[in-house]
Every structure is written in C-alpha cells, then in structure tokens.
Amino acid sequence: MDTALLLSGVLALGIGAQWLAWYLKQPSILFLLLIGIIIGPVLGYFQPDEVLGKLLFPFISLGVAVILFEGSLTLEFHEVKQHGRMVQNLVTIGAFITIIVISLTAYSLFDMDPQVALLFGSLVCVTGPTVITPLLRSVRPKKNISNILKWEGIIIDPIGAIAVVLVYEYIISGGHNSSLMLFGEIVLLAFVMGMVGAALLAFLIKRYWIPEYLRNVFTLAYVLFLFSFSNHLEHESGLLTVTVLGVALANWKGFPRDHILEFNESLTVLLISMLFIILAARMDLAALATVGFSGIVLLLIVMFVARPLAVWASAKGTSLTTNEKLMISWIGPRGIVAAAISSLFAIRLEDQNLQGVELLVPLVFLIIIGTVLIQGLGAKLVGTILQVREPSNNGVLVVGANQAALTVAKAIKEQGFEVLVADASYTNISKARMIGLRTYYGNPVSEHAELHMDLIGIGHMFAMSTDRELNTLCEMHYRHEFGERNVYRLQLPDEKSRPERHRSQQSFASHYLFGKDMTYSKLASMVSKNARTKTTNITAAYNYTQYQQDNKNAIPLLIIDKHGVMRVITTDFNPKSQSGYKLVALVTDGEEAETVKA
Questions:
Q1: Which of 85, 112, 147, 570 sits 20 to 30 Å CA-CA off 394?
Q2: Which parts of the sequence belong to the Cation/H+ exchanger transmembrane domain (predicted)?
Q3: Torsion angle of alpha carbons 126, 130, 135, 141, nearest 10°?
C-alpha cells in the first residue's frame, strides 16, 4: 500500500477518534488504542515497523519528548501549595504508596526484574487531565471531589513523568553501586542543560529577540534540538533534560508560558492522535494473552488496593467523609504518560537483558484500558450509590460581565449554584471579581477557553453580552457541551424588532432568557433602578398567576424545584400548571415603580 496514503489514513483515524471522544465525552486514549489494536495486530492492515522502518524509533522518541515537555510546562510550584492538603498528599505520599504497592505486586506476580517492576509501578501511578476531565463532566461528583481529582490529574502528570524518567535513567546507568556515578552524571547533565536552556530561551523571548510569530515554532525546534543534543552528550539523558526545561519555564517569572503552551497542546493532540495508534498497532496480542489471570489480578490490585491505600493515607487530617474518599478511590484511570513512555522505554531496554521488559507494554495497556473502561462506565453508578453526585450540572456560564449580566449571575450564586462569568473586558471582569463571582478573562469561544476554562459543575450557558455576534457564536459553540435545551441568550433590542422570517433563517432556534418580551435594554433599565432579587414560594394557595398580579413590574428569572434543580424562565416556560417551587425574580422596591418598557 502507498505509504503516504497509509500514514494520512492513520492521521485521519486519529483525529476521528479525538472527535468521537469529544462527541461521547469520553477519554480519547481509549478510542486511539482500540483503533490501533484493530488495524494493527487484529486486521494486519498497518505494521508500523515495516512502514516507518528506521524512522520509527526517532519518531516515537521525539513525540514523547514533546509530550513530556508540554506536561512539565504545566507544573507551577505555587499551584501544588494552593489546592489543599489532599491534593498535595495525593501527588506526593499517594504517588509513593501507589508506586510501591504496584511495583511489589508486579514483582510478585510475574518473573520480573525488580528494576523493571519499579519502572512499571512508576509508569502506572499517573492519571492525567486528559482522562480525568471527561469523566468528571460526565459523572458530576460533588465540587470538592471534582476539584481534588482535577488538580491531582494536572499536577501528578509532570511529577509522575519525572519519577518515571529518573527510574529509567537509573536502569540505563546500570543500577549497580559502580554505576551510581554514571547515574549522577546523567541527572547532573540533564539538570544543568535544562536550567541553562530555560534561562537562554527566557532571555531571548523576554528581550524580544524572537518575533512573536516565530515563538511557538522556535520553542518547538529548541526543545527537539536540546533533547537530541543532550542524548548526544550523554546517552538517554534527553527526556530528563526536556522535563527539567519545561518545569523551569513553567516557574520562570515573566515567561509567556500560556501562548507557547497553547501551541504545544495543539501539537500534542496531533502527535498523540498518530503516536498512540502506532504504539497500539505494534502491540503483541500473544504477549497480552500471556499475562492472563495474573494480569487481571494486577489490575484489581491497582484499582482496589493501591488506589484506596493512597487515598486514605493522603486524606488523613482532612474533612473528607468516607463516601467521598471511596469516590476518589474509584476514579483513577491511567492515561497518556503511561502509554507513551512505556512503549518508548520497552524499545530502548530491549538490549539490557532485563527480565520482564517484554511485559511492560501489554501490562500498561491492560491497566489503561481496564481502568478507563471499568471506572469510566461504573463511575456514575458508584457515585449514585455513595450519594456524592450533584443532581445535575446546575451551574451557569454567563457570557458577558455588563451590569445586567452581573445582577443575574449574583442572583444565581445566592441560590447556591455554581456561576462562571466570562468576558474579554478586564474592567468588566474586575467588577465581577469584586462581588465574589468566579471569572474567566478572555473570549469564551477561543482555543484558550477550550483548554483553560473550568466547566466542571456547569450545565447552562446564558449569552448576555451586548455583542450579538458573540452571543450567537456562544450558542453554537456550547450546544454540544451543555445540550441545546440548556443554552440561552438574552435578546438585544434590534433582535426583537427583526422580522420573524429573518430569525427562522438561523440553523437553530434560540431559547430567549426570561420570556419573549424581555430584552437587554429592559433588563438593564430595571437594574439601573436599583432592582434586587426576591425569592417567593409558589404553592397551590399562592400560584404563579396571583404572583404576577401582585408583582406587575417583576422579572421572573428562574425557579428552583423541591429537589433543588434549577429551571430557567424562557419563552416556552409554562409555570401555571406547577406549584411547590421557589421563584427567583428581579423586583424594584415599592409598587409605585413604573412598568419598564423595552
């Protein structure tokens, strides 16, 4: 088969797997590995060793180097301190316990060299945000659980990578007392080159000696060259060098990390899409079958012994309940770092004559697929049984931080719901922060927002900006994320006056906030009259019709039913047949207030 056609087909399948994961809100690594196994060892359509030949090893090496650099570029030391004792303990004490338990188990169950067992334990101690975040959005655990799991995944990714690379460097050095000097030389060289490399790159960029349009590609070329040059000076030191480089730049004051991180994250998606299919296509199904029952036992110990032990030890002295600790124990899927590095190290250790090296890849893949499938499919049931799930993603993303939007956002927060305000105006965002709202400063439909805006617990979107085009873009962008019925917009005056036929030309029907007659100008005028929010119990004795008669100038915003679920007042809302809920409305003091006209 034509090599170009084959490689472009693999890339197309990889991007297709990423899209499928996005659509189903599941970790992409599962689909990538399954596709690779199917087109590789199962059907025999794709044999990476034959197609890539001598380029296979350099491609995998450079790909892993970029993945490690991108991961380490997210490790900011101050973040470890600011996310609570539980997260700090999980990425230190918990990681150590996990490595020890899994290493001892692998050594006991398989005829494996102790060094290889330690390397395996280090590989599978890492979770990662790419597998955790989709599960959290789907499962909807309580906010404290979500925050712990989310930040554990973000921080443990680079920390685990450092641990894995250090163990690998120790093995490469010989692992004997006489080889400790070589191990020290590798670590010292990597540390010096990483720090000096970070200082040079930061100096060049901060002095504007590199034009902005070249920063991203210059950094990529710089990382790959430093990786290769380090390996040239000291065999196998490159991975540790780029990891040190990434950590140093992440904590370098004034370094424009975010722009470079965006580019590297996009590149990482491209690399992962191809790399994981290639790695899975090299899988030896016979080797996977040889792990047999022992492999299943190892998987169960990883899930039901190592993880709970790490969580319980880390939770000592915290206020977590037993059910919350059980839920955190259940969610611990393994991800990208384990799959990428295990395959690379297995290739590099082939000539070391270490017992059990051939089991690294099948065991790691077994752990990844097993934890993602079992924990992913069972997380909702476990969360429901433990009663640690939110009834629904009732939080609201409010697009726009004008005064009308902030009034609505504050009213929602006062009812106990999560609120996130997004706006590209720093002045407006500052006002939102001043009244205690969680904010995102930037364009809510940008790539930066896609990567950095925390939507855990958020299930609705209110487009309340004065920019009509931005409101439309937000409607389209968040329809898949939240569902069409949970995406709303506030009408602007010119939209209300547009002919109906112009509205019908849209590819979707907008759900307008607070009724068909409500517009931004009407709401803003109400806010300018010092309107406040008021909560009223609607019952059979005091129904919605009576409420409207008594409060002609009120603007109903939302209702909260007896189960604590929020429903938004929209054009198609019919409350007259309902009772037994709380109505939240915007009112002005005194009945003498005039009716506000649109």
A1: 85
A2: 20-380
A3: 70
User: Per-residue DSSP letters for 90-137?
Assistant: IIIIIHHHHHHHHHHHHHHHS---HHHHHHHHHHTT---HHHHHHHHH
Contact partners, residue 372, CB within 8 Å, separation at least 6: 27, 29, 30, 131, 333, 334, 335
CB neighbours (10 Å) of residue 66? 22
pLDDT tens digits, one per residue of 328-337: 999 888 776 6
Give 376's contacts (C-beta < 8 A, 6+ positions apart).
Answer: 26, 27, 30, 135, 138, 333
Residues 31-90 have pLDDT tens digits of 888 898 898 888 888 888 788 888 877 887 788 788 778 777 776 766 656 556 888 888
Share of the chain above pLDDT 70, in %: 86
Angstrom distance (rounded) from CA 240 to CA 375: 31
Please state whether beta strands 581-587 and 555-560 pair in parallel, antiparallel, or not at all (unpaired): antiparallel
Residue 445 burial (10 A CB sphere; 0-12, 13-18, 19+):
middle
Distance CA 456, CA 8 (A): 35
Q: Which tokens sit at 457?
A: 């617990």
Contact between 60 and 347 (Cβ < 8 Å): yes
- Single out the residue of 186, 187, 168 nearest to residue 342, CA to CA: 168
Q: What is the mean pLDDT of the chain?
A: 80
Model confidence at 176, pLDDT cuts 50, 70, 90, reads low
Identify the residue whose tokens are 């004034």: 254
Q: Does position 414 have pLDDT exceeding 70, yes or no?
A: yes
Distance CA 187, CA 162 (A): 11
Q: How far apart are the first and last CA of the chain?
A: 66
Q: How many H-runs (helices) and E-runs (strands) does the chain carry?
A: 27, 9
**Token pair recorded at residue 313:** 């030890």
**Residue whose tokens read 């919605």:** 544
| Residue 589, burial from CB neighbour count under 10 angstroms (0-12, 13-18, 19+) | exposed
- At 177 the pLDDT is 53
- Euclidean distance between CA atoms 558 and 539, whole angstroms: 16
Find out whether 63 and 237 touch, Cβ atoms under 8 Å: no
Q: Which two tokens stand for residue 428?
A: 């407006």
Closest to 166 in 3D by CA, of 194, 189, 196, 186: 186
Side chain identity at 31, as an amino acid letter? F
Average pLDDT score over residue span 391-408: 82
**Mean pLDDT over residues 409-435, rounded?**
86
Q: Which residues contact 24 (CB under 8 A, 6 or more apart)?
A: none
199-208, 286-295, 464-473: the lowest-pLDDT one = 286-295
Closest CA to 536 of 547, 524, 549, 522: 547
Higher-pLDDT residue of 369, 551 = 369
Count other Cβ atoms within 10 Å, centred on residue 464. Answer: 27
What residue has token string 């920019």? Answer: 467
